[in-house]
Amino acid sequence: MSVKGQSGSEVSGSGTSSRPTVVVAAATTSIERDLITRWMRSGGLPAEYDTDATPAVLDLDSKVLAAELVPRSDDPLIVPVKVVWLPAARDGARRVRFSDILALTNPRNPNRLIQQWLVGRSSDRHRIVVAEPAPLSELQASLQADDGDPAPDLLARHITRRAVVALERSERAVIGDRYKVPRLVAEQIMDSVSFRRHLEAIAEEHNISREEVDSRARAVLRELVAVQSRLVTDLFTQAMRPLHSSAWSVHADESGLRSLRELNRRRPLVFLPSHRSYADAFVLGDILANNEFPRNHLMGGANLTFWPIGPIARRTGTVFIRRSFGDDAVYKAALEEYFAYLLTKRFNLEWYFEGGRTRTGKLRAPRFGLLNYVANAIRTGRVEDAMLVPVSITYEGLAEVAAVAAEQTGATKKPEGLTWLARYARNQRRSAGNVYVRFGEPLSMHGLLAGSGDPELSEPARDETEHSERTRKALQKVAFEVAVGINGATPITVNCLVTLALLGVRDRALTLDEVRAVIAPVRRYIEARNLPQGELSVLDMEGGLARVLGSLTDAGVVTTYSGGEEPVYSIQRGQHLVAAFYRNSGVHWFVNRAILELSILCAHMNPGENPVVVAWEEAKNLRDLLKFEFFFPDRDTFEAQMRAELALLVAEWSDELPRSEQVALSALIETGFFMVHRTLRSFFDAQLVVAERLALRDPSLKLDRTAFLDECVAVGTQMLLQGRLYGPESVSSELFATALQLAGNRGLLETGGEEVRERRRAFAADLLAVGKRVQLAESLDVSNRKADR
C-alpha cells in the first residue's frame, strides 16, 4: 500500500467501512501515542478504514492483543500504525552521522525528551505510516492453514509479527529500501510448524527431551540471527569507508545494478563475490547501499567476531557461522531454517564461496556448504528460486598481498584483532589505484539444479547412492557456473599486464620501451577477443606506462634503477609472489591461448606423427593437468573454445591443411608474443616439484600431507637456487597443495608397490617434457628477444 503521512497524501487499501476497525499502534512512548491519537482525530485514518464509531486503539503487544483482540467475534479490520522518526536532511539524504549521536540518542529512535523537542520544532523529522490492513478472520485462517486451530497466545504473536512486518514495508516507502531489516526472526522460526516438527524428529532420534531441544534451538538462533540496526548500519558504513575510500577509486557496473534491482523485486539475490581483500565486503556494501539495495546478510567466519568488529558487524547484517559444527543436528537444523526464512522473505545473502581470500590472485576452488543450504530451501519447495549473482572485485593494488604471499612460503598468519585492525587501517591510507566491481549474469539456482540432474528437481534417482552422487554433481555444476560468471566479469588491469611482462623475463630488467613491446601484442589480442578491461587507456597516454611502473615501485613490487642511460625495471627481490598475485587476477583469460601454444609446439616436436591428432591430444592432456587450477568447461565446449583461439591465428584453418603445425607455428610467431611462459610456467613448475618428491618417496608409506607440503617449499627453494625452477612465484604452498590434489586425483597418493612408483615417475617425466616446450615458447617469443637487439 502507499503511505499516508502528515501531509495528508492519499492512502490506498482494501478495507471496508462495514467492518469495525481496530488500530494497533506500535508506540513506545506517550509522545508517539499522543501523535497517533491526534492524527486519528484530525482524520488521518484513511476513509475506507473509517467507521461511524471511533476505532479502538490497542498497543502492538501480543499480551494486549491476546486479551482484547483475539476473543472478538465481530471480525474487526486490523490497521497497524506507527510513528517513523527521521534524521535531519543533509544534501538530499537522511542518514545518521556520528555528530547526530552526540545527544546520546538515536535519531531513528529518539528518547522521549528528544521526541518532544522534535514535535515542537522539527515537524519534518517524523511521519505517521499506515500498513496494509487485514481482517482478524484472515489472520486466523493464515495461521490455521499451517497450525490447525491456534491457541490465543499463538494467534496474538502471529498478528504481532504480521503487523511488524507490514509496518516495516510501509516504513521503507519513506526511508528507502536500503533499510530493509528483518524483525522477530527467532520468534517466527521457533513458531514455524515445519521447524517444530523438525525439532520433534531430532528429539526422538537423539533421545533428548523436547524442552532441551527447544532450549538449544533458541540458543543457536540467538547466536546466528543478525540483529540489524539502521543506526549501526549508517555509522558502521561511515566508520569503515576510510578502509577503502582512501585507497581506491571505485568503478562499479551501474547498468548491471539497475537490472539486479528490478530482478530483486521478484526473487531473493545471493551475491557471490571473488575474495581478494578484507575490504571486499565494505566496497560491495557501499555500492549496493548507494544504489538503494537492502543490506545483504553477509555470511562470515568466526575469525572476525573480535570486539568491537564482531558485535557491530552482527548489527549490520553479518551472520557468524561456526567453522565446524560436526554432528550437532540442532545447529544444522536452525541454520537451514534460517537460510530458508531469509530467502522466503526475499532478504539478500552474500558470502565468499571460495572459503577464504585467494592466496595466488586467481579464483580458488569453491566450497559447497552454504550453497547446499540454498539448494535445500529450493528442493523442499520452501523457496521457488534464488538468483545467484557472480561478483568480480578486482584491485589494481592491495597492501595486504605481501602478508598473503609470505604465508605461501611458511609465514604464520597473524590473527585478527584490534592490533591487526589498526595496522590494516594504517596501510589503507596509501592510494592503490582502482578497484573494479563487475556483476556477472544472474543465474537461476532452480534452473541450474534441475538442468544438472538434481534428483529432487528432475528425474528421481533409482537408489540412495545415485541420489547422493547426482545431488553432489548438480551442486558442483552450480558452483562451476558461478566461478565462470565471476571470471567472465573480471577485467584485465594495468598491473596485471605490467607484472605479466616483468615476470616473463626472469630477473632481467626491462627498459620502458621493452615493457611496452611485451604489452603491445597482448593488448591487440585483448582487443581481438573483446575481453573486459580496466582503465588500460592510461597506457596510451604520454607517461602513462611510466606512472604505472612508478606506482608499483612505490608499493615495493617493482624496483627501478635510474643510474644509467635510462631507467630499467624489474620485480623487486622477494616480491615475485606479490607480482604473481596481480598477474593472476587476469591470467584465466590467457589460459586457452597458452594451451594452444604448447599443443602446436608438441605437434612441431613430434614430426613423425599426425600433427593434428598430436595437438588435440596435448590440449586435452594440458586441460587435465590444469583442471584444479582453472575452471574448464565440458570437453565439447573446450574444443570449441580452442578452435576459436585457432581461428584468431589462422582464419582459414582446416585440420587437413598440409604441414598444419608449421602454418600454426608461423602464425603464432607472427603475432609477436607467446603467452605460456608468462602465465602457466609457475603452475607447471610447482607440479614438477610435487611430482619429483612423490617419485622419490616409498610408495608403501602413507603420505603426511602437512609434512609433505613443507618439504616441497624447502626443496622448491633449493631447486630455484639451482636454476631448475624459473622463478620464485613457483615456490608456493598454495600451488603445491593444488598440485598434490591433482596427484591424488590420478591415484598417485595411494599406497602400493612398484606400479605406483612407476606412475609417479611417469607423471614427473610428463611435466619435464611440458617444461621443455615452455622453454621453447620463451625462445620463440619475439617480444622477449627485443632486449637482445
Automatic annotation (TrEMBL):
Answer yes or no on keyword Acyltransferase: yes
* Entry GO MF terms: glycerol-3-phosphate O-acyltransferase activity
Q: Where is the protein localized?
A: Endomembrane system
Keyword set, alphabetical order:
Acyltransferase, Membrane, Transferase
| Basic and acidic residues composition bias: residue spans | 459-469
Q: Name one Pfam family in it.
A: GPAT_C
Question: What region holds the Phospholipid/glycerol acyltransferase domain?
Answer: 269-396
Bilayer topology: Peripheral membrane protein
EC identifiers of the protein:
2.3.1.15
Q: Give the region (Disordered) as residue ranges.
A: 450-469
Please tell me which top-level EC class this enzyme sits in.
transferase
Q: Which InterPro entries match?
A: GPAT/DHAPAT, GPAT/DHAPAT_C, GPAT/DHAPAT_LPLAT, Plipid/glycerol_acylTrfase
Give the family, as the similarity comment puts it. Answer: Belongs to the GPAT/DAPAT family.
PANTHER family found in the cross-reference section: DIHYDROXYACETONE PHOSPHATE ACYLTRANSFERASE, GLYCEROL-3-PHOSPHATE ACYLTRANSFERASE
* NCBIfam families from the UniProt entry: PRK03355.1
Name this protein carries in UniProt: Glycerol-3-phosphate 1-O-acyltransferase
Q: Which organism is it from?
A: Rhodococcus zopfii
